Amino acid sequence: MGSETSYADWIAVDWGTSNLRVWAMRASGPVADARSDQGMGTLEPEAFEPALLDLIEPWLGAAPMPVIACGMVGAKQGWAEAPYAAVPCPPVSLATVTPNVQDRRLVVHILPGLSQASPADVMRGEETQIAGYLADVPEFDGILCMPGTHTKWVQVSAGEVVSFRTFMTGEMFALLSTGSVLRHSMDDHWDDAAFQDAVRDGLSDPQALAGRFFGLRAEGLLGAPREGKARARLSGLLIGAELAAAKPYWLGQRIALLGSGRLAGLYADALTGEGAAPEMVDVTDATLRGLTAAYARLKDRL
Q1: CA nearest 148: which of 267, 274, 21, 2?
Q2: Of the four, 69, 179, 190, 265, which is 20 to 30 A from 276 by CA?
Q3: Domain boundaries 10-124, corresponding CATH code
């Protein structure tokens, strides 16, 4: 490849708190990808451009390269703050932010997140996944469940995000399982039946959650429960309590579950156990489709 010719037409970027992932894009789709652990949480503002160039330098030519980025790169602590768009609104706004760059081969556009005034809530990155899902299913009217450290429940209608709620369930599990007295009861095994029982307990009696947590420790001290029971029950209690609080979102609704890996499977199992029928959607595919949709809308301005 000569220095005058770029490898890609544009570059898609998903920049989270912990990780950075990039794709070299052509009209046919992605032709290469790369990732690093240079997430927003590890970088000062002046370090974003070098971190990006470390991954995409082989894809650049002499001409300016459009870069469309989503995620925490647009947070206050990120490269450049992209103000939130207030719901109800389409998931991706064209009010992008362009950070200053030293390398004139780069033209970076950071997509804004979404905000909700009451109850107060925000998202960054998930709005691009929503846009990607709607690019494939434009007629969707229902609920998107987006499992993660901070799980989102999103109401979508007529191509717009109407409302959403965020639950810190994943972060609570991490804190309780590693930083509380319950760490002494955790092991690396898993009990599916214990998880499902705990989902039902958490959903039916969420006000008893704090007491049930200590019961997990007491069971270990008094009776040595089966391997994996405490970890599975802690996860199930937390997800069950979340389902209880989010019931107005999912009960009787069409649900698409945007996720991947073990956590998405747990939410699917929990919802299925309550009679729901979530449609599974790969979150990486949705992110890339959302960035592609944003590029298509921005193309005339680039």
Answers
A1: 267
A2: 190
A3: 3.30.420.300
